[in-house]
Amino acid sequence: MGNQQVSLEDLFEIKQVPGYLHDGLGNIYSLKKSGTLQKLKLIPHGGKSKKTYYRVKAAGRLWMVHHLVLMELHDRCLLKHESGNHLDGNTKNNKPCNLEISTHAEQVAHAVQNGLYCSGESWAKARGLLES
Fold this sequence. Notes:
By secondary structure, this protein is α+β, with helices and mostly antiparallel strands. Helix content is 20%, strand content 25%. The protein contains 3 helices and 9 strands.
C-alpha cells in the first residue's frame, strides 16, 4: 500500500505524539515533514525472546509501534510499569484488536496460559543455545 492510497480520514491521530498517525494495521505515518503524509519505515528490533518487534523513529526518538497504537487507542501515554501485550503472541501484529496494556507479570501469565512461554530445554533451544 503506497502513501497515495492512504487518506487522513482512514488514519488515527496519536495525540500524545503530535503529527503522527497510524492506520490500524501497524503502520505509522508522519505529517511533520513538509505537511505531506509520509509512511515511516518499520525498523525490526529483536527483543529478549528473539521475537521481532517493530519500531519507528518519530519525534526525535525510537518508539515501539505497539506502544504508539496503544497510546492512541487509550488516549494516554503508557505508565512506567505498563507495556503492550500482543494477544496472539505475534509481535509483528500491531492491529489494535491484538493489543492490550499490561504489566510484565500479566504478560508472563498470558504467555503461560496460552502456551506462548517456554522454559528449561525448550527455552535454550528457542535461543539457539542447544541444538535442535
